[in-house]
Amino acid sequence: MALKSEIIGVNKLNQIEKLRLFELMQDHYDGVALKKFEADLSIKDKVIVVKDQQKVIRGFSTIVIRYFMTDGKRWIGVFSGDTIVEKKYWGQSSLQIMFTKFVFIQKIKNINQPVYWFLISKGYKTYLLLANNFLNHYPRYEKETSVLHQTRMDIFYSELFGTCYNSKTGHVRFDNLSTRLKSGVAPITAHDRKYPRIAFFEKLNPDWENGTELACVGEVTILNAILYCFKKATQPIYKNLQRFHSYATIKNKTASGDQSI
C-alpha cells in the first residue's frame, strides 16, 4: 500500500481533484467551508498530491514561494499549507520526502541566498516535521528565537496573512471560519507531554484545539540536506535493530521462565 507523491501547479488541478482535496479537509478538520477552501487554494503556487496504487488521492500539502529583498539582501521563503494524510497511511513518508526534496532543490538553485521553510501549525505533528528534521528552526525549546529569524517571520507572515498574524504571540488566527482539527485527530496526551518538543508546542500554542496556528521557520542548508539523506538512509537499519532487540529480549525472558511477558 505504498504511496507516491507528485508536485503539480494548483492551476493544473481539475474540479474532481479539488473536490477530493476538500473532502480530505472535511475528514480531518472542523469549520471547513468550500468557498473558503477554494479561495485559500487559489493563492497557493503548487500542491503535493499523494496517491495510492489505484491513483486515489490519500493526502496533500500546498506550497507558496515568495522572494524578498531586505537591507539589500535577497532571500526566499517557501510556505507549506495544511498537510493531510489519511490516518491509515500515517507513518509513510512519501509526502514528507517530496516536500523536503523540493525545498532543498530551491536551496541548490539559490545557493548564495538564504532559503527558509515557513509553516504554521495547529497540530504538534506538523510542528515535529520541522523540529525533528531542521537543525536551525524556531521557535524551539532549547533557545530563544534569533532576531534575524524573528524579523524574517514577521515580514513573511505579515505579507501572507496580514492582521491575522500577531508578531507578539507568534500566532496566526483567522476569522470565525478558522479550521480546527477534529476531536481525536492528533490529540496531545499525558504521554506525549513527556517529550520536550511536544510540551513546548502546547506551551506556546495552548489554543491549538480551536484552530490557532503557531508561526514557525526553518533555515534550509546544504548540511541539513546531507544529514536528512543520511537519516533516511539509516532509518531502516535502526528500525531493524529495534525489532531485533525486542525479539531478543522476549526470547531471553521466555528461556528464563520470566512470567512478566
Describe the structure.
With 261 residues, this protein is an alpha+beta fold. The protein has one domain: Aminopeptidase (3-Layer(aba) Sandwich), CATH 3.40.630. Helices cover 40% and strands 25% of the residues. The strands form two sheets. Strands 1, 3, 4, 5, 6, 7, 8, 9 and 11 form a nine-stranded mixed sheet that branches. It has a two-stranded antiparallel sheet with strand order 2-10. Strand 3 and strand 4 form a beta hairpin. Helix 4 crosses helix 6. The longest helix is centred in the C-terminal third of the chain and has 34 residues, at 222-255.
How would you describe this structure in keywords?
40% helix, globular, 261 residues, single chain, two-stranded antiparallel ribbon, alpha+beta, 9-stranded mixed sheet, Aminopeptidase
SSE topology sketch:
Layout: E1 4-9, H1 15-28, E2 29-30, H2 34-42, E3 46-51, E4 57-70, E5 73-85, H3 94-109, E6 115-121, H4 124-131, E7 137-138, H5 147-161, E8 165-166, E9 171-172, E10 180-181, H6 196-204, E11 213-220, H7 222-255
Parallel strand pairs: 5-6
Antiparallel strand pairs: 1-3, 2-10, 3-4, 4-5, 6-11, 7-11, 8-9, 9-11
Order of helices and strands: EHEHEEEHEHEHEEEHEH
How many extended strands?
11
Give the oligomeric state of the chains in this entry, treating copies of one chain as homo and distinct chains as hetero.
Answer: single chain
Mean pLDDT: 85
Number of helices: 7
Give the helix proportion (percent range): 40-55%
Unreliable parts: 244-251
Largest sheet: 9 strands, mixed
Number of domains: 1
**Terminal-residue CA separation:** 32 Å
CATH class: Alpha Beta
What's the overall geometry?
globular
Strand content: 15-25%
